[in-house]
Amino acid sequence: MTDAAWGFPARIVLGTARQLAGRWTGGSSDPPQTKEFHMSHQLLTHMQSAIEQTRRDDRGATMIEYGLLLGLVSVLAIPILLVLGPRIAAMYQAVVAALP
């Protein structure tokens, strides 16, 4: 199972504290009851919740979509205004000249 956004297996990051504890204690399934273990467990739990929250959050994607839309509109509008700008200015000048 590879997480496409990061390019590495998600099970490495999302492994449980019990699996990590088994590696630290030479294969024992009981986690060591040390201060370091509790700190590591808290860090792992916090990292798991942060990753899950980031994966569920789509606010950034919406902002990116608006940015791409704004870029597309500006790429299309600038050349059109450069081509039609002199014609529009001449039309306004003719209207101003026709006013008493």
Describe this entry's structure for a reader:
- Helices cover 74% and strands 4% of the residues.
- The chain is mainly alpha-helical.
- Strands 1-2 form a two-stranded antiparallel ribbon.
- The longest helix is centred in the last third of the chain and has 40 residues, at 59-98.
- The protein is rod-shaped and about 90 Å long.
- It starts with a strand and ends with a helix.
Could you provide a short overview of the structure?
By secondary structure, the chain is mainly alpha-helical. It contains four helices and two strands; from the N terminus they run E-E-H-H-H-H.
Strand order of the largest sheet: 1-2
Helical proportion?
over 70%
Strand content: under 5%
Quantity of strands, as a count: 2
Task: Please give the count of helices.
Answer: 4
- Report, as a whole number of angstroms, the end-to-end distance: 77 Å
- Nearest-angstrom radius of gyration? 30 Å
N-to-C order of helices and strands = EEHHHH
| Low-confidence region ranges | none
Average pLDDT: 76
Report on the biggest sheet. Answer: 2 strands, antiparallel
Task: Give the helix/strand class.
Answer: mainly alpha
State the shape: rod-shaped
Which labels suit this protein?
100 residues, mainly alpha, 4 helices, 2 strands, 4% strand, rod-shaped
